[in-house]
């Protein structure tokens, strides 16, 4: 584990985003420290707004839980609540409570702590691989190849802004939108759907747990964008406030995040300053590898609320 990613200032540079990702997921065990929990320590990734990226703490919490189960039991689901914003200038302590180890399934509760209080509470389940019924959703047809689409770096490299620099050069994933991205410009078509191709910028070790945790990291990218598209909003909308409230994920089949994955998203509802989004993740051959759901808080300035209300 390294603390090279803790407390970096705005001007500091991270040479290799892949080293960042691997360092974030390499949790320390605090020399076997334990109460009624197994205790681990993880670094934080620098962020221009100094708040921990939700996908980071999800992935680290999954790695902490994975460290406490038998190697032949793989993560198949997790349900987490973001309780407080995390400080990206501080490390995170992870406490894992061993709720149950049954014949086929293990359950773990993971709390991520900063300053002695939880910033995330999660329950995850792990299963010994088994045979059974098998069916899956079908990947959408007529999707352009990722190589034909611009990357986030292509779209944002020309903007001299800390957030743009972070998204274009410091993220460990290459994310490519099927429809025009919402980083700066509002969408021209108001639909409650979104889709992106994504993969890590470089190869990862052949560790299935690492790939599942890294997918949890990436699953927090763009997931609320179907809500923004439906209401004609860009991420740069003045005065808008967006925050993830919870996150659920189900891993269905083996996955590699260093190969292209298609993330298909939609929003069934938005109301009461909250919006729900769901996503299906497919590998390039069409295998449905995971499903995700998240509710987010979305507040727009009062003067804009009438413009975006009741768009059914």
Automatic annotation (TrEMBL):
GO biological process: acyl-CoA metabolic process; fatty acid catabolic process
One Pfam short name: 4HBT_3
Occurrences of domain Acyl-CoA thioesterase-like N-terminal HotDog (ranges): 50-127
Acyl-CoA thioesterase 2 C-terminal domain boundaries: 189-297
Keyword tags: Hydrolase, Lipid metabolism
GO molecular function: fatty acyl-CoA hydrolase activity
Top-rank taxon, per record: Bacteria
Reaction equations catalysed: a fatty acyl-CoA + H2O = a fatty acid + CoA + H(+)
Family designation: Belongs to the C/M/P thioester hydrolase family.
Description of how the protein assembles with itself and partners: Homotetramer.
UniProt protein name: Acyl-CoA thioesterase 2
Species whose genome carries this gene: Arthrobacter cavernae
């Amino acid at each position: 584990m390294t603390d090279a990613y803790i407390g970096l200032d705005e001007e500091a540079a991270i040479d290799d985003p892949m080293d960042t990702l691997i360092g974030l997921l390499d949790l320390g065990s605090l020399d076997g420290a334990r109460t009624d929990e197994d205790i681990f320590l993880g670094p934080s990734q620098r962020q221009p707004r100094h708040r921990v990226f939700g996908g980071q703490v999800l992935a680290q919490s999954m790695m902490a839980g994975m460290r406490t189960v038998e190697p032949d039991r793989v993560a198949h689901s997790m349900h987490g609540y973001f309780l407080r914003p995390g400080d990206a200038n501080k490390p995170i302590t992870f406490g894992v409570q061993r709720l149950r180890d049954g014949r086929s399934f293990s359950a773990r509760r993971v709390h991520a702590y900063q300053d002695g209080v939880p910033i995330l509470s999660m329950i995850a389940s792990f299963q010994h691989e088994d045979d059974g019924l098998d069916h899956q959703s079908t990947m959408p047809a007529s999707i352009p190849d990722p190589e034909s689409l611009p990357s986030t770096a292509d779209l944002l490299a020309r903007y001299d802004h800390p957030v743009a620099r972070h998204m274009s050069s410091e993220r460990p994933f290459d994310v490519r939108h099927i429809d025009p991205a919402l980083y700066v410009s509002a969408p021209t078509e108001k639909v409650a759907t979104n889709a992106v191709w994504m993969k890590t910028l470089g190869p990862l070790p052949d560790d299935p747990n690492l790939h599942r945790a890294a997918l949890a990291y990436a699953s927090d990218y763009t997931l609320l964008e179907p809500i923004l598209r439906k209401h004609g909003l860009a991420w740069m909308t003045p005065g808008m406030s967006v925050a993830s409230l919870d996150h659920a994920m189900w891993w269905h089949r083996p996955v590699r995040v260093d190969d292209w994955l298609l993330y298909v998203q939609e929003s069934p509802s938005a109301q009461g300053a909250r919006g729900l989004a769901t996503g299906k993740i497919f590998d390039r051959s069409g295998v449905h590898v995971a499903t995700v759901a998240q509710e987010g808080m979305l507040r727009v300035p009062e003067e804009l609320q009438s413009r975006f209300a009741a768009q059914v």
